[in-house]
């Protein structure tokens, strides 16, 4: 064998482990154990002050120390979103699947209750357009919206989150 062979080791969960981080003018650099790296524009972090230092207290969080001494935490998955477009796309696809699944559940429950969009909206205290967008999967409900829908449908909140046909993930 004339060429040296490079050994590659796969580390389970390496896509979640931050191994390096640093500050430059206007950006935070981050590198993961699997070699992915990228820059996060500081403006996208909406920090309440200017960062002067960066720390890695563990492999899953980046701490930015602000000039006034406060510390802002950046979770690994938020950093990964910027460092790895494939991760970002995978997460966005999963979120879309979740919105669609919720929309199908909501529509099924509404139809089983014999309600129109307008009737469910009135009973829930929501706007009809909100109900329609949720059923289409084009928006995600917040907790208060979930509570309002459960109240309007006269079902327990968990019925909106997991259908009887879907086993819980665990």
Question: What do you see in this structure?
Answer:
The chain is of the alpha+beta class. It has two domains: 70 residues, NE0471 N-terminal domain-like (2-Layer Sandwich); 66 residues, lambda repressor-like DNA-binding domains (434 Repressor (Amino-terminal Domain), Orthogonal Bundle). It is built from six helices and six strands; from the N terminus they run E-E-E-E-E-E-H-H-H-H-H-H. A three-stranded antiparallel sheet has the order 1-2-3. Strands 4-5-6 form a three-stranded antiparallel sheet. A hairpin with a 4-residue loop joins strand 5 and strand 6. Helix 2 packs across helix 4 and helix 3 packs across helix 4. It is elongated, with a radius of gyration of 22 Å. The termini are far apart. The C terminus is likely disordered.
Q: TL;DR?
A:
With 170 residues, the protein is an alpha+beta fold.
Beta-strand content bin: 15-25%
Distance between the termini: 47 Å
Fraction of residues in helix: 40-55%
Number of domains: 2
Named at the architecture level, the CATH assignment of the largest domain is: 2-Layer Sandwich
Principal-axes shape call: elongated
Write down the CATH topology of the largest domain: NE0471 N-terminal domain-like
Mean of residue pLDDT values: 88
Number of helices, counting only DSSP H or I runs of 4 residues or more: 6
Along the chain, the helix and strand elements come as EEEEEEHHHHHH
Q: Give the strand order, joined by hyphens, for the main sheet.
A: 1-2-3
How many strands, what sense, and barrel or not for the largest sheet?
3 strands, antiparallel
Number of strands: 6
Q: Which value, in Å, is the CA radius of gyration?
A: 22 Å
Low-pLDDT residue spans:
166-170
Class by alpha and beta content: alpha+beta
> Mind telling me the CATH class of the largest domain?
Alpha Beta
């Amino acid at each position: 064998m004339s060429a040296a062979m490079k050994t590659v080791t796969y580390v389970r969960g390496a896509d979640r482990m931050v191994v390096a981080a640093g500050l430059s003018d206007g950006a935070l650099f981050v590198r993961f154990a699997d070699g992915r790296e990228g820059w996060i524009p500081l403006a996208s972090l909406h920090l309440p002050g200017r960062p002067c230092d960066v720390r890695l207290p563990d492999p899953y969080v980046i701490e930015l120390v602000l000039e006034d001494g406060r510390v802002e935490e950046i979770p690994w998955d938020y950093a990964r979103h910027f460092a790895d477009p494939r991760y970002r796309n995978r997460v966005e696809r999963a979120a879309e699947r979740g919105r669609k699944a919720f929309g199908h559940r909501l529509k099924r429950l509404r139809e089983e209750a014999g309600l129109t969009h307008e009737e469910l909206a009135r009973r829930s205290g929501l706007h009809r357009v909100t109900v329609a967008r949720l059923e289409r999967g084009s928006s995600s409900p917040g907790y208060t919206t979930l509570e309002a829908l459960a109240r309007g449908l006269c079902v327990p909140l968990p019925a909106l989150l997991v259908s009887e046909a879907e086993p819980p993930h665990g």
